[in-house]
Amino acid sequence: MISVGIPYTDQGEMLAEAIQSVLTQTTDNWELILFGDAPNAETESVAFRFQDERIRHYKSEKRQGLAATLNELVKLARGEYFARMDGDDIMFPNRLEVQADHLLRNPKIDVVGTHAYLIDDSGCLVGGFVEPELPLTSNGFLTSNAFTHPTVLGKTDWFIRHPYDESLLRGQDKELWLRTSPTSSFDKLTDRLLYYRVSRAMDAKRQKRNSEYDRIIIEMYSFMAKSRWEIHLRKAKSLVKQQLFALLTRSGLSNVLYARKAELLSEEEFSAASRQLTNIQQASRAGQRPSVLAVTVTYGDRFDLVRRTVESALEAGCSEVLVVDNGSEFDNSTRLNAYFSAEKKVIVTRLTSNEGSAPGYSAGVGAALETSHDFFWLLDDDNVITQGNVDSMWNTHRQLKTVSDVAGVAAFRTENPRQARVVEGIDHVHAYPPSGSFLYFDALHFMKRKFLRARPNTRFTHTPEIPVAPYGGLFLDRESVGRIGLPDMRFGLYEDDSEWTSRIALQGRLVLQPGVIVDDIDTKWTQEAQGIGPARIINSSTKGRIYFAVRNRVYLDNQVLRSKSTRIRYYFNKRIYLLITRMLANSQRSSANFDVLRRAVQAGEAGDFQISFTPVEKSD
């Protein structure tokens, strides 16, 4: 009954998801026609990976364009209905059944479209795709694309009688609706029956070409307008939109443009749509999923925490988990070995003493390099992956590796204030402290933030670049680790993850993936201390933690002072910070913590790492 036509060129593994979404439809009464328009070798191999009697394969040796390929697909169709589909989109499981049933019950309708979900390059659900309602008059089609093109399903003979205009490289669908609207019957369902993929790489050149063809089509059908003045106005709006798009992309505000394409979903719909999407993606990669090793470091008496971390990593799709026992207590070490000895997917390696997180993760990453796994997902020993999985991280990482030799993807840590600001829509330049800051404090940066508050909106996810990330949630490949090296063990405890991940950002690209959420199930010492900034230091009961956190941060602050202006800015921020901290210490009669702070600042500025972390100092 239904012929599904998918043209493809260079979609790679995304084509596998598109094909799989057809195979998992709730109706079996379909055929799938795959037509490669001079495809690259990788995508063609993906297409031929699917061998099913209901699938037919065709291709052209020379690139002929989308319109010509669609016309070929229609000619090859054997079904009563023809369903459009792009090679990087994904059908909702009941799409074909719902649309075909609608046409059966309404035989006068020629073509029916639907609403859609928006997904990004890595296949993460963003929200509902914002699109116009179906125009009620032919004139309305001049300013509206009417349908999200891959959602349409119509009578095959209608498409044969009304072929796409092969002279148009863009806007073929808009021209088709304009040409046929006076004599055809269209309908649009409110159901979201397609995951529509839109790249976050907002390409100004591509948008310029789209706008140019849009103006050509408007002129072609100017006779539909009420007046010539209306045509001039529509073309002027198209040109203004093109220029505004170019300005915003050059200004680094492409995330604003992308956010306008999505609308919020209810929690229930977002959760249900995410599950369906994940199921299709996982099925498309059966036998293709990458080999991922989760790496975590534990210490003290934290068996119950690390057990939940291991279980979470395996549920998220990790192939194995490497647990570094960083000199934990005897009873804890015994429980680790006893519990995981029967679990073939867990490897436990023990360090004789706890010298801090830097040596622990250095040992863990070093041991990971000795395995056969191609990807590593680092987790703290109290991390639980509450949203997303290996596939989501891998998809994002795969996009990065096409443009960078060194690539890392950080999962969203909801308790991380800087990551939270980025997810809210604030550029990382404003969310993270700039060069010249002191212990994350910068007076000018603080004032700017007051005027750059963004409305929280965790549904409008994106994958922005960030300068640093914590160990917990970091996903990277073997090759990138080989290029950046292991964590600097001199740091011992605190900021070693900042120093290590900054190498990723400096040598390649490090991005945040808000579609994958990693939550802590334990409380950090900085959260235990009341207040923020200086108040946390003065209120802390652990002087050893103060010393290492301050020394290491100050050392990193000094490493990025590249100019005289940043040095002046640094010393200005330092004076203000120390003045506030001294005042707090005097008011609370806590001069001991201030003395520790002062000694740590001196050591950090001098690059003095002679005092190293030990378990004794940890409990000081």
What's the quick description here?
The chain is α/β, with parallel strands linked by helices and 620 residues long. Helices cover 45% and strands 18% of the residues.
How would the blueprint of this fold be written?
Elements: E1 2-8, H1 13-23, E2 30-37, H2 41-48, E3 55-60, H3 66-76, E4 81-84, E5 90-91, H4 95-105, E6 111-119, E7 125-129, E8 153-155, H5 156-161, H6 172-180, E9 186-197, H7 204-220, H8 228-250, H9 254-259, E10 262-263, H10 267-284, E11 292-298, H11 303-315, E12 320-326, H12 330-340, E13 346-351, H13 357-369, E14 375-380, E15 383-387, H14 390-401, E16 407-413, H15 417-424, H16 428-431, H17 443-450, E17 474-477, H18 478-484, H19 496-507, E18 509-520, H20 525-528, H21 534-539, H22 543-559, H23 564-588, H24 591-606, H25 615-618
Parallel strand pairs: 1-2, 1-4, 2-3, 6-9, 11-12, 11-14, 12-13, 16-18
Antiparallel strand pairs: 4-8, 5-9, 6-7, 6-8, 7-10, 14-17, 15-18, 16-17
Helix pairs in contact: 1-2, 1-10, 7-8, 22-24, 23-24
Describe this structure in words.
There is one protein chain. With 620 residues, the chain is α/β, with parallel strands linked by helices. The protein folds into three domains: 197 residues, Spore Coat Polysaccharide Biosynthesis Protein SpsA, Chain A; 200 residues, Alpha-Beta Complex (Spore Coat Polysaccharide Biosynthesis Protein SpsA, Chain A); 92 residues, no CATH class. The protein contains 25 helices and 18 strands. Strands 1, 2, 3, 4, 5, 6, 7, 8, 9 and 10 form a ten-stranded mixed sheet that branches. The chain has an eight-stranded mixed sheet with strand order 13-12-11-14-17-16-18-15, sandwiched between helices. Strand 11, helix 11 and strand 12 form a beta-alpha-beta unit. The longest helix has 25 residues.
